[in-house]
Design a protein that fits this description.
Layout (H helix, E strand, L loop, with lengths): L5 E8 L3 H12 L5 E5 L7 H4 L31 H14 L6 E3 L3 E7 L4 E6 L2 E10 L21 E4 L13 E5 L5 H8 L5 E5 L6 E2 L8 H9 L1 H23 L6 H14 L3 H7 L11 E2 L3 H5 L4 E4 L3 E5 L2 E4 L4 E3 L2 E4 L14 E2 L6 H4 L18 E3 L12 H22 L4 E4 L1 H15 L3 H4 L21 H7 L8 E4 L5 H5 L8
Parallel strand pairs: 1-2, 1-6, 2-3, 4-17, 6-18, 7-16, 8-9, 8-16, 9-12, 10-11
Antiparallel strand pairs: 4-5, 5-6, 13-14, 14-15, 19-20
Helix pairs in contact: 1-11, 5-6, 11-14
């Protein structure tokens, strides 16, 4: 390169749980030569972006936090968005990450330099290079808005749940909520009391279980502060219960019938109208799509100012929304709760590997990686919350910490090898890992439950969920197996010329 640019050992992309966790782990490994590149003006990831009314986590607070940064002061058993965001800001402060974080630095392109064995990174604030890239952009970072004919000419207000417009007053308005996912079931009861009319466009009914949320008492918080092992025990109990549930999802979906009965009873308690109850009863096995938790969603739907259209939005004519079944509804505002680009992550368009192809091109037939972390043809690049690391019933923080263990050992292996060196995942190893994962996926509820979910990619392959326990994933990512990697040295060096190592991972 003709011009000198800043060079770092590691560039971390994103400052949500994955990015901040990676930064903490790098410091613990004695690596301080790193930056965290964040496109927004503050840390927090999805918990910064999703500030819609009622936004909260559906995993218990004491399990939805880092094991190395317990929080004895969670105010509720299921925390709200503002408390999780404050926790992440706290992590950035306590672990002295602020000097490493570059806010307002959106990564526009990353290219692997096969001669220098490093990544060239273009950001919105300039260029830099890095020996290793840790991509922690997360699967829930880029909102997905469906292409609806007539949407561009809708005269009212339109926004996605992850880009909530707090300046727009919904009071007295006729509002359409598009989608019935985890965001929608929190938004609906939050805005229902203040809007004139709320119309919910439901393409697929979700299974909804009660949300056992309550205030954490002052005595509990005092106990967790004074005797930290009690918080650890609480976390362990929450983890263990969820580990025991996994086999029903992954091996014996028929065992989920009892849970379906409980979900139907939960609905019947609030929905007395048989016609509405029929609309809201799913036609697929519980667990096939994410089981949602809410104690106020069904009561809100039963209110007189709420309509449920059991059909997806097909077209917009002026201010009239037309459903696929022909139902017409005139509204002032449209809120999309239609999820994110999960199986087609936009960051993949911005990563150019050793052979000049983007990660999106490499993944055109479906995302796949080695142990959810590394991709063939992309040396010294790894992702946090990569393909097949998602969960259907437990805390993603457990999976993130497992991947941080893998990242830490990856860095140790590079140090042991010494000099200018890279590790490239062998295509054979990536293929073998993914064949095993997909074989196990065949009998899971996510593949056999009779639904179409955001877990599946365009070809119907589940590239999102991990088909096992979090404990098993922890064991599988405890360390790097060098036999699964090619060791890459700069072209022309003695090691490369000797044939002991390969020039680049093809």
């Amino acid at each position: 390169m003709s011009q000198q640019h800043e060079h770092v050992r590691v560039a971390v992309i994103g400052s949500g749980f994955g990015g901040l966790g990676a930064a903490v782990r790098l410091r613990r490994e004695g690596i301080t030569d790193f930056v965290v590149l964040e496109r927004a003006d503050s840390v927090g990831g999805t918990w910064r972006d999703n500030s819609y009314p009622g936004c909260a986590c559906d995993v218990p607070s004491h399990l939805y936090s880092f094991s190395f940064a317990p929080n004895p002061d969670w105010p509720r058993t299921f925390s709200g968005q503002e408390h999780i965001r404050a926790y992440l800001e706290h992590v950035a402060d306590v672990f002295r990450l602020r000097p490493h974080i570059r806010l307002g630095h959106e990564v526009q392109m990353m290219r692997w330099d096969t001669d220098e064995l490093r990544w060239e990174i273009e950001t919105s604030r300039g260029r830099l290079t890095a020996d290793v890239v840790v991509s922690a952009t997360g699967p829930l970072s880029d909102p997905k808005v469906p292409e609806i004919p007539g949407l561009a000419s809708f005269p009212g207000k339109v926004f996605h749940s992850a880009r909530w417009d707090h300046d727009y007053d919904l009071r007295g308005k006729r509002v359409a909520m598009i989608g019935t996912g985890a965001s929608a079931i929190q938004i609906v009861p939050s805005i229902q009391p203040e809007v004139e009319r709320l119309t919910l466009f439901q393409r697929t009914a979700p299974w909804v279980m009660p949300r056992m949320d309550r205030r954490v008492t002052a005595a509990e918080r005092w106990l967790h502060r004074q005797l930290p092992f009690t918080g650890t025990a609480r976390r362990g109990l929450l983890w263990g219960i969820r580990e025991l549930q996994v086999s029903a999802f992954t091996k014996r979906p028929n065992q989920l019938g009892l849970i379906e009965s409980l979900a139907k009873a939960n609905m019947a308690k609030s929905i007395k109208d048989p016609a509405l109850r029929a609309k809201l009863t799913p036609s697929y096995r519980i667990g096939c799509k994410r089981i949602l938790l809410s104690s106020d969603y069904y009561p809100a739907l039963a209110r007189p100012n709420v309509d449920v259209v059991a059909s997806g939005l097909a077209e917009i004519r002026g201010s009239t929304l037309v459903a696929a079944d022909g139902t017409e509804t005139e509204v002032d505002a449209v809120v999309f709760g239609t999820g994110f680009h999960v199986t087609d992550m936009p960051i993949a368009e911005r990563v150019v590997g050793a052979d000049g192809h983007t990660l999106a091109e490499a993944w055109k037939d479906g995302m796949e990686s080695l142990r959810g972390a590394t991709a063939a043809g992309f040396p010294n690049w790894m992702t946090i919350i990569g393909p097949n690391t998602g969960l259907g019933n437990s805390s993603m923080i457990l999976m993130i910490e497992s991947q941080l263990n893998y990242m830490a050992d990856y860095m140790r292996q590079l140090n042991v090898l010494g000099g200018r060196v890279a590790l490239g995942a062998r295509p054979s190893a990536v293929g073998a890992w993914n064949r095993r994962v997909q074989e196990r996926m065949k009998r899971t509820v996510w593949n056999t439950g009779g639904c179409t979910s955001w877990y599946l990619d365009a070809s119907g392959r589940n590239t999102t969920i991990w088909p096992g326990t979090t404990g098993e994933f922890r064991r599988q990512t405890r360390g790097v197996d060098l036999s699964e990697y090619e060791v890459i040295r700069p072209p022309g060096t003695r090691e490369a010329a000797s044939g002991l190592v390969t020039e680049e991972a093809k």
